[in-house]
Amino acid sequence: MQALGRHLLCEYHGCDRELLNRTDVIRTELVAAVTLSGATPLHEVVHAFSPHGVTGVVVIAESHFAIHTWPEYGFAAVDLFTCGDSVDPYRAFEHLRSALRAQSHSVVEIRRGLLPGSGPMPHKPG
Amino acid sequence: MQALGRHLLCEYHGCDRELLNRTDVIRTELVAAVTLSGATPLHEVVHAFSPHGVTGVVVIAESHFAIHTWPEYGFAAVDLFTCGDSVDPYRAFEHLRSALRAQSHSVVEIRRGLLPGSGPMPHKPG
Hints:
globular
């Protein structure tokens, strides 16, 4: 069965709470994660919540990366949704783990869009 | 165990291929899904790929909704990530199922950010 996409659901616990609340850091590290993974960024949105919490999304040519932070819990939830085989989302996962100084983490990989057949995995056109 | 977020991973097969390739339709139906679920839209990005395929993301006060379409396969992958208990993401799921004319679908609900303790589920501040 071929899959159109792969999706990493990443959770980071025990992160640096100050970093999780800084929109500049979240933007910089999320874009760095995109670049390190080999993905192509197209659009980015970063939103700061009051009194705390940041959401960041980067639409990439290969789908999207997203992060939501809860500084009050030292927690961040990250989604790395990619298609094609030119991107290594685990590089993004590792980068964010380090950048956010997570003390523990989990990651689950889910294949999205499982289709019958065994042909080559299609690429999302740029 | 309380969870900070809930995340529906939705897959729609056998959709109307023409609709899946129309950025205006994807934008309209994704925003309608946000509204119907009771979420608060903050930012939206819709990107058209060549020769086909659309990505749409709406950052909401309660996290994000995202859609990626593969018109050539009649397939769409949707993520409905929400926090707080004022949003019903299944209304968004049902709306998109109908709007995209999906012939079949799957949905998996994942709890994000499971934390120890049994206090009230925190809301993401607006």
